[in-house]
Amino acid sequence: MSRNPAAVATDEALAEQAAEWIVRLSDGDEAERLREREAFEAWKRADPRHAAAASGMERMVGQLRSARADAGGNGRPARAGLDASFAGQRRRGRVKRAAAAIALALLLAGPAWIALRAWPPGYLLADVHTATGQWESRRLADGSQIWLNSASAVNLRYDERRRVIELVQGEILVDVAKDAGRPFLVETAHGSIRALGTRFVVNRQSDATILSMLESRVAVRTASQRADSEAIEVSAGQRVRITAASVSRPQEIDARGLADAWQRHQLVIDDQPLDEVLDELARHRPGHIHYERAEVRGMRVSAVLPLDDTDRALKLLSTSFPSLRIRTVTPWLVLVDAPPPSH
């Protein structure tokens, strides 16, 4: 018999709560970590389900950190090992890889696998990451500056030839310092963006990367393009959607308005599907927003929503869509649906 969707959503919310605690315990100074640790222990004692969710996450993160320690603090071998485990079924006949996949499945049994959707291994092992609701500015060794918004993560790969930022998850704003001898690139699974002395925003989504140009120009190549193939140039005031196989036609945007929205922690939406808006709000909110994607996909949104106050953002959405039902079960669990009108 299938479980009640609300019960399933509650389990997911608990797992994501546990993951959020784990992330917060890895950030901040020592005094802050001690305060967070005390609060975390109190949270676990408050409910046996909290302790169970936390146990799965702590076990997983402990193994990931052990893999990183074995590599002398470098997270890439651990990430590579996990990627190999997940990709094991693509190459049959490799006993070691199959065993790794089984071990990983056992490790993630219970609530921890749910939380991996919010906090995947690549995020946990990234060079720089932000927790839910946290925004961070980081000046890099070359003088460039990046801003990470909520639940975002990057790896920094600088050497004598290139400056590369790998966007693992979330969204960043980049202000590039000039260095004629070393090109500056932002890379995702969908392609690469080479700065031509510029300022821009990159948002990595599950199926595409969204590039929004604020100043100057960049050269874009998809993941499937050869290194010697001609790149696509994108200029200030344009936005493109990059997939592994293609780059969309540029869409005109208000570059100054987008930059202001970043400073104010706002989400500016222009005729966007509601399910994508809920996904973005969920990245800025601890816990879980549960909804059926097919039920809300037909609704489209044009609005400016506060990312620092997702309760208010959800209330604004419910005002705009009277047919939308938004129920806050706990601060960590929101149920969204669009029930048919009663006759």
Report on the structure:
The protein has 343 residues and is an alpha+beta fold. The protein is built from eleven helices and 18 strands. Strands 1, 2, 3, 4, 5, 6, 7, 8, 9, 10, 11, 12 and 13 form a 13-stranded mixed sheet that branches. A three-stranded mixed sheet has the order 15-18-17, sandwiched between helices. Strands 14-16 form a two-stranded antiparallel sheet. The longest helix has 23 residues, at 48-70.
List keywords for this structure.
single chain; 343 residues; alpha+beta; 3-stranded mixed sheet; 18 strands; 29% strand; globular
How would the blueprint of this fold be written?
Elements: H1 5-25, H2 30-46, H3 48-70, H4 76-86, H5 95-107, H6 112-115, H7 121-124, E1 128-129, E2 136-139, E3 145-148, E4 153-158, E5 163-175, E6 184-188, E7 191-195, E8 199-204, E9 209-215, E10 217-222, E11 232-235, E12 238-242, E13 251-252, H8 255-264, E14 266-273, H9 274-283, E15 288-290, H10 293-296, E16 300-306, H11 310-320, E17 325-330, E18 333-337
Parallel strand pairs: 5-6, 15-18
Antiparallel strand pairs: 1-4, 2-3, 3-5, 4-5, 5-8, 6-7, 7-10, 8-9, 9-12, 10-11, 12-13, 14-16, 17-18
Helix pairs in contact: 1-3, 2-3, 3-4, 4-5
Concise synopsis of the structure shown:
With about 350 residues, the protein is of the alpha+beta class. It contains 11 helices and 18 strands. Helix content is about 35%, strand content about 30%.
Q: What's the N-to-C terminus distance?
A: 30 Å
Strand content: 25-35%
As a whole number of angstroms, the C-alpha radius of gyration is 21 Å
Largest sheet: 13 strands, mixed
Protein structure class: alpha+beta
The overall strand count is 18
The averaged pLDDT comes out at 80
Topology as H/E string? Answer: HHHHHHHEEEEEEEEEEEEEHEHEHEHEE
Uncertain parts: 77-111
**Share of residues in helices:** 25-40%
3D shape? globular
Compute the number of helices: 11
